[in-house]
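User: quick one, sequence for these tokens?
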């Protein structure tokens, strides 16, 4: 069962007209408020449900409503509506009444299917207006008893702006979804391995004098006097040794790069940060005049490097942005 009565009630409220194929057309009639010819009674506006058995042309409103509510195809919805129409026709021809929700019931009248509307159906009843009121004409006052009445213009103190509740609910749901997506836009506890070059430069130029002097001393040190495998004492005591490879010492070698930093000192600090996050694999430094890059392995063949990179990304999500660098380029 597809609840044909519910669909017809909804379509009458929102469109004022709906066709049940093979049975007839339902329509909502409207009569405006009027004053009786004798000026004694004022009748309110009235809405009424009308049924036209001769109008059987399908306007497809009912078909689309059934498709949307049941998430079914056009053919399935058409078959379901046809089955409902056949059930109505068989019930009425058998001499019984077929009740259509709160609207009314189908009956057999003079050998033809007719529809009797309930007096308290939800389409008409809430919109009947006020009961008829008897209006008594007033006598016109005498001229000598008339007094001038001065009407002062009043400025409203408050202005009320009405918004449909449906729009407010939709806006609230949209705002909640946006906030939720913003919360999920960046994974929690994911380290940021990128370098803020502007921040590093500011720290080097405008930091304390001891920090500036340390940076200057580091820049003055002759790199040719450093051994290739020089590491700090603290790092050597806690983790495997860090190898420093200078640019130009290797050619046609493929490195798996996991981070790029502007100096060797910052690269060593990044290694300590990785160690604190649970990274136990060997981390090496590939040093160039302008950058220091961290790599986890090197290969002489590109295919081997690519296979290792695929395995590294699967096993260590922290290195999902790792890439391959050719030292010969």
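Assistant:
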């Amino acid at each position: 069962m597809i609840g044909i009565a519910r669909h017809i009630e909804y379509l009458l409220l929102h469109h004022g007209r709906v066709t049940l194929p093979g049975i007839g057309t339902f329509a909502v009639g409207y009569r405006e408020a009027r004053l009786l010819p004798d000026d004694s009674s004022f009748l309110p506006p009235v809405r009424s449900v009308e049924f036209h058995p001769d109008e059987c042309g399908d306007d497809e409103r009912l078909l689309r409503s059934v498709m949307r509510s049941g998430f079914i195809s056009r053919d399935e919805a058409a078959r379901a509506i046809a089955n409902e129409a056949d059930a109505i026709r068989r019930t009425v021809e058998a001499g019984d009444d077929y009740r259509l929700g709160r609207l009314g019931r189908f009956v057999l009248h003079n050998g033809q299917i007719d529809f009797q509307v309930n007096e308290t159906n939800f389409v008409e009843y809430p919109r009947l207006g006020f009961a008829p009121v008897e209006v008594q004409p007033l006598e016109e006052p005498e001229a000598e008893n008339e007094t001038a009445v001065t009407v002062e213009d009043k400025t409203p103190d408050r202005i009320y702006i009405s918004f449909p509740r449906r729009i407010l609910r939709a806006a609230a749901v949209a705002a909640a979804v946006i906030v939720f997506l913003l919360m999920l836009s960046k994974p929690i506890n994911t380290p940021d391995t990128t370098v803020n070059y502007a921040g590093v430069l500011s720290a080097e130029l405008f930091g304390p004098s001891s920090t500036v002097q340390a940076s200057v001393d580091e820049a003055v040190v002759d790199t040719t006097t450093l051994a290739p495998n020089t590491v700090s004492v603290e790092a050597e005591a806690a983790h495997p040794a860090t190898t420093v490879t200078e640019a130009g010492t290797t050619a046609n070698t493929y490195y798996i790069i996991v981070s790029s930093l502007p100096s060797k000192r910052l690269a060593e600090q990044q290694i300590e940060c990785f160690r604190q996050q649970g990274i136990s694999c060997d981390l090496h430094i590939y040093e160039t005049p302008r950058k220091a890059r961290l790599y986890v392995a090197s290969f002489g063949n590109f295919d081997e490097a690519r296979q290792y990179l695929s395995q590294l990304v699967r096993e260590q999500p922290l290195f999902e942005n790792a890439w391959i660098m050719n030292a010969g380029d």
